[in-house]
Structures are given as structure tokens and as C-alpha cells.
Amino acid sequence: MDILLIGGLWLDGSAWDDVVPQIEALGHRPVPVTLPGQGDGRTGVTLDDQVATVLAAVDAASGKPLVVGHSAACTLAWLAADARPEAVAGVVLIGGFPWDDGKSYADLFPIVDGVMPFPGWEPFAGPDSDDLDDETKAAVAARAVPVPEGVAKGVVHLSDERRFGVPVVVVCPEFSPAQAQEWIDAGDVPELARAKQVELVDLDSGHWPMFTRPAELARLLVDAAV
């Protein structure tokens, strides 16, 4: 099965470099998705442009792919399920949840000269980054790609309720499955509250397991592809 890998904010396709060979060794085809505006030097990119790129990857896949979104890109993965509910095998959400209709995609940090730069590690102190050593932090920060304003402030549009029939796996790194279930039950994640099949799986890591637990993450993704 093709496993489409969509990195979160500030990440380009190289974020999956340690995960890709692990997935291949387990018999599946990993496809890191290079999002416009995240690695190609373009700053005038919109959220719609990124959605279109993800949908093009879905359409180009061999058979029904598994769509994996990390962090903010959990919403991108869910948008793919909304636009192609019959063409995806399932969605995996790593360290995040999909926004509901009408929300801003990722208007989280200040915009500077038309982009949202990586804010440094201070906002992510604690469970998010405790498992990252100084060398890894420096490497990730050096490779961080500013997010175009049109992506960060883009508005999420969902329209096809068939998305609720797409199987969902939530990989819980810096939070536990029990916490995730509490948030869903409390109405904090309305999209998943309506999803018919949601599995919560634990992963002992911080917010960026592709850097710190690539083998374990790859195994969870392959398990979700079965």
C-alpha cells in the first residue's frame, strides 16, 4: 500500500528520511509529500494549493493510499478524506487533530514579511520536545521552512459527510490515548467525535517522533495500513 506522509508546519519532505526505509522494509511504499511553500522557496502559496498537492498525491497513488498527517497537517489529511472519501484507505493523525469547518488552518505565531517563521523551541518546552537532544533541535531549526501566510491563515472547508466513514488512527505521542479520548468526548475535537471508526494508539515520544522514534512510528503506520 502507498503511505502518503505529510509533515507539519516548517517541515519539508526530508522530515521523513528516517521513517521511509523502515516502511519500505515492512513491505509498503512510503510517499513523502512535498507541500508547496514548504521547501520550494515559494511564499505566495495558499492552503488550497497545499490541499491540491495532497489530492494529486492521492490520485496518483497505486490503489487506495493511507494518508498520514503530522501535527497541523492532520487537518490536511482530513481534508483529503473529505475530498476523496472513497479513494483513501484511511487517515493517520500524528500528534494532532483535524480542525472543523471554518477554522483557520494554523494561525498560531506572528507573521513576518508574509510568512510564519519557526518560533524557536521555547513554545514547545516540556513533553513536546523533551525527547529531542540539542543536536536534533539545532538540525530541525536549521532546516525549518517558514510557512506562507496564505497557508497559516487559510480557512478550512469541509463539505462531504462521507469523511466520517473513513477509518482514523490517532497516534498519541506527547499526550496519552486516554487524554485524546477525553478531548474527543468533551467536544474539543468535533470531527473525530462524529467519525465512525477511531483508534487511539500510544507512542512514547515527543511531538516529532519521525526524528526520535522512526522505527516505532513506521511500525504503527504499517499496522494502520493493514
TrEMBL record:
InterPro entries: AB_hydrolase_1, AB_hydrolase_fold. SUPFAM superfamilies: alpha/beta-Hydrolases. It comes from the Bacteria. Pfam families: Abhydrolase_6 (PF12697). Residues 3-219 form the AB hydrolase-1 domain. GO terms for molecular function: catalytic activity. This is Pimeloyl-ACP methyl ester carboxylesterase. It comes from Promicromonospora sukumoe.
